[in-house]
Write the structure tokens for this entry.
Amino acid sequence: MNPISPIEMLGRICVVLCNTSHPGNIGAAARAMKTMGLSRLTLVNPKQFPDDEATARASGAADVLEHARICTSLEEALQGTVLAAALSARQRDLGPIPRPARQAVPELLQWTAQGDIALVFGGETSGLTNAEVEQCQRLVTVPVNPDYGSLNLGAAVQVLCYEVRQAAFDDAPPVSSLATPFATPPASHEEVEGFYAHLERLMTATGFLNPNSPRRLMPKLRRLFGRAALEKDEINILRGILAAAEKPLPGAKINRDNS
């Protein structure tokens, strides 16, 4: 199979929702898809669609809903695909052998080099029927808590889409460039030394450090702050704290007698 790019892989994956009863779950699924870079949604016999609640729950992924394909049967929905994977939480005697999502997804993505693949989800009440599962070549599960395995449809779609994105990008998907960088440039040697001198001066003034018997206080503090690899902003904050501590407290009497 010829390799294709991660974006091309994601573009060849279709999420198929069968017999969805609540329009809000359709919107939640669309949102889950778009956050992971998937856009192709097929609905099989949705009870209510289009619907304002679906659009509201999509929260900015209305374009996924607008381009959704509506089918009357799973057979119609799977036309043109080269592989279909059913998501099911129930143990079944018939059909493909179930595999956890993280194990199954890499193999599913390999098939995108040959054509479109489908991730098939059942309705909220009873999931996929045996007949629907039998139309799929793979069976995927989410290893949930065995004592409580109730997974919302939108959450199930989110889990599968996340696994797909991680695998497509070899666990290193691109990150958003919209976030404001939190880190600042590292502090210079002079800035760090200025902080240590300021700190030593304040500790001496308060009596915390005895300059005649300093012991190993400053070396230990240097090692502490050295591990932190101080940045410019952090040095400014620390120097500001020290400067504030040097100011007399409000209402304090200042002794100006130099005699």
About this structure: The two ends are 92 Å apart (CA to CA). The chain has a mean pLDDT of 91. The first strand starts at residue 13 and ends at 18.
